[in-house]
Each structure stands twice: as C-alpha cells, then as structure tokens.
Write a structure and sequence with these properties.
This protein has 191 residues and is mostly helical. It has two domains: 7-49, Arc Repressor Mutant, subunit A; 67-190. Helix content is 75%, strand content 0%. It is built from eleven helices and no strands. It has helices at residues 9-28, 31-38, 42-48, 52-72, 77-90, 92-100, 102-107, 109-113, 123-136, 144-162, 171-190. The protein is elongated and about 65 Å long. The relative contact order is 0.10. The model has no long low-confidence stretch (mean pLDDT 92).
Length: 191
C-alpha cells in the first residue's frame, strides 16, 4: 500500500533549501542535498520542483513575502528604511539570493521560456509605497521616484555593510549617516 502524500513536504523542502543556501550558497544547493536535508528522496523533490532553479524561485518568493512583511510592520517610512538595512544585515545570504539572482530566475530569456513567473509581486516596494502614502497623503503609486530613491540608498548601505566595504568599526557612524540621508530625502519631498 503506497504511503499517503505528505502535505508539508514542500515546506520541508524549502526550509532545507534555505538552510543549505545559508550554509554554502548555490554550490550547496543540489537536488540530492535538498532531499537529504528535507528527510526525503530525490524523486519526491522532483515531483514538487522541476529543477534547482525552481527551488530557488520558490525560495525567493518566500523571502520576498518575508521581507515585505518586515517593512509592512514598520510604523513609518523611516522605520521601514531601518528595517530594510537590518533585514539585509541579519539575513545576508537571503539578501544575496534576492538581489543577485532575481533577474536570472524570473526575467532572463531562459527563465521566461521555462515559464517562470513572479507570483507575489514586490511586497517590499509595495509596503514602502504604502508607508509613503500614509505619511504624505495621496496614493502609493504617487511615490515611485521617492520609493526608488529610498530603495537605492538602503540597498547601497546594506551592500556596503554586508561586503565590509564599510568596516565593522565604522558601521555605527555609517548607520547614523544613512538615517540622516533618509530623513533628508523625506524632508526634501515634504517641502
């Protein structure tokens, strides 16, 4: 008699993939390693995910939702910017997956031919647009340029700190500079 399918197996596979990604990046993420880490076999993984890139897409979607929720929970655009940097610094491997592989997984010609689709949109961008609309009035889509400016500032600061281009001894001062730059952008918009 065959075993009944495990309804939680897909989540187990993604948790295992995330742990492997954190530990060794893309090199550690093979279908066999994911199966072993998830406590299942390779055919079971292939029944749920076509290939390694399919696992990475699902993992990226999960990270997008998590990251969006972090920003959505902020009480202001200023706090959302701080949370942005905090998330990147406390989840550097997830952040790397998010920013270094998004294009190849969803938008490259190969991915498009494979039918890859972003099914969750961009929750972090949407959360920040909503925070800006709450602060200044109007509709979230009115803040595309300001949102992009804040995103570039936060992403740059995060990458400089992750890469240790900003030395660990200079992080506190750099964070204060980042906070002041966010305040200046928002003040300029408000005037």
């Amino acid at each position: 008699m065959p075993r009944p399918p495990n309804p939680d197996l897909e989540e187990q596979i993604l948790k295992a993939a995330r742990k492997l990604w954190k530990k060794g990046g893309g090199d550690a993420l093979t279908m066999r390693a994911v199966a072993e880490a998830a406590g299942t076999n390779t055919p079971a993984v292939y029944r749920r995910f076509r290939d390694r890139e399919d696992i990475l897409r699902a993992l990226l979607q999960s990270i997008r939702l998590e990251f969006g929720a972090v920003l959505k929970a902020a009480s202001s655009p200023e706090e959302a910017c701080e949370r942005y940097v905090d998330y990147g610094l406390s989840h550097p491997h997830e952040y790397e997956l998010f920013y270094r592989h998004e294009y190849e997984l969803f938008y490259s010609a190969r991915s498009v031919r494979a039918g890859a689709r972003n099914t969750v949109g961009r929750p972090a961008r949407d959360a920040m647009s909503q925070k800006l609309a709450e602060k200044f009035g109007g509709a979230p889509e009115d803040y595309k340029r300001l949102n992009a400016s804040l995103w570039m500032l936060a992403h740059g600061a995060t990458m400089l700190m992750i890469g240790k281009t900003i030395l660990p001894t200079e992080v506190q001062e750099s964070r204060a500079t980042f906070t002041a730059a966010v305040a200046a952008l928002l003040e300029k918009h408000d005037s």
